[in-house]
Each structure stands twice: as C-alpha cells, then as structure tokens.
Amino acid sequence: MLEPVTVCTPRDSRIAFVRASARLRGLQPEHPRVYAVAVMAEQGKRRWWRLADGIREGRIELMYRRHVAEMAHAEIAAEVVATALIHAVVGRVMAMLVSEGRAWDPGLENLWIHTDNDGGIDWAGLVDTTIRVVDGDRLIGRPGVVALPCEQALYVWLAHRCEPGLALVQEAMARCAGLGVRRFWSLVAESIVGAATYVPALAGTSSSEGAQRGQAMLAALEDRGLPVRRTCFVR
Questions:
Q1: In terms of residue numbers, what domain contains 186?
Q2: For the chain, how many structural domains are there in total?
Q3: CA-based torsion, 80, 158, 53, 234: positive or negative
Q4: Mean predicted lDDT score pLDDT of the chain
Q5: pTM, whole model, 2 decimals?
Q6: 230 falls within a domain
Q7: No. of H helices and E strands in the chain?
C-alpha cells in the first residue's frame, strides 16, 4: 500500500511567517504596522512599490520634496525620509531578530514599500517569506523555514542582505537631499539600537540579549565596511 504524499502548498510555507508577523503586530496593538510586514501574495498593488523600482522611479525624491514642503528645515525632512526607509529595510527585521533570534529576507529584490495617503511609508511587504533561524530552533523542519548553523551566521547573512537596499537608499538620499554618508549610517545604527532597546520591553524578552543582538548586527555591518559605529558625523 502506497503511503499518502504530503503536498506543501504556498500557504503552508507562509504559516511560520504569518504567525511571526502576528506577534510583531502585537508589540504595538494600537499601531500594528510599525514592526510587522505583509505577504505580498495577499496584497493588491495599490500604493505598493518595490524598493528597487522606487529608487529608480524617483519616489524617494518625491517623498523628500513633500516633507520639505511641510517642515521648517530641509535637513530634518531628509532625516525623516531616510529613517523611514532604513526602518523598512533593517528596523523591522531587527524587531524579529531581537525578540526571537530569527529573520526574514530584507533583500532589495524581495522588499516592497507601502505608502499612506500623504505619501509617507506606513508598511512593508515581502515576496519571499522564508524565515531564517539558527540550528536548534523549534521551527526547524517546518515549511518556509531555513536553518543557519549559528547565530553569527545569521548576522552575517542578514548584513549581506540588508546592505544593497541600504546602500541604494543612501545614494538616493545623498543625491536628492544632500544627506551625508556618515550621518546616513549613523541613522542606520540608531534604527538598530532603537529596536534592540525598545522591542525587548514590548515583547517581554531579555533586554541584555536584545542589546547583544543589536551590537552583533552592528558588528556584522561594520565588518562589511559600513560606517555604523563612527562618531564623527559629516553632513
């Protein structure tokens, strides 16, 4: 008698991600989109744009011009836009890394951005929702989960996947707003440290472990030659 064949559907492969995203929405129930990301297969395309396409199409420049029109100082507008984009690339995934020791893929070709009625960023989405975990994680063996050998390998992989998106955003912000390289990367560091500081309190997890993970992520980016730990900010 033949054994029944178990078929993994696309929806099955997203179960681990969907549950993780629900936990992230619960960190700030009054603002559920702050840390969570969407499954693009379940979204319409209205007000959604792929990060890589948006940079080429001038969407970042448009966002900057809108903020400049509403704010007293162009430098503040530049930092507001840069911070929102940095949060979409690395801040959101840091929330998951800090609270659970897991990560999704924030790669440039995988990340989508959602804008609100005023043109500001209020959400992010992924095409590939595969979650990376560390060897020994209880999710290993489940659909949509890939294991890496150790936590350090997770940081190295995550830094590698974040760098292209962050680098393109930095170039776009320098071109349209004159935001300095060192100031941009200091904002990246602030996003990472902010997640490492605030998320454990929201999630009820270890603050010391969160801080260690934040510093490990900064070290992984620094190992790639990115100035996330320099204290001399040049605009």
A1: 10-223
A2: 1
A3: positive
A4: 91
A5: 0.91
A6: no
A7: 9, 6
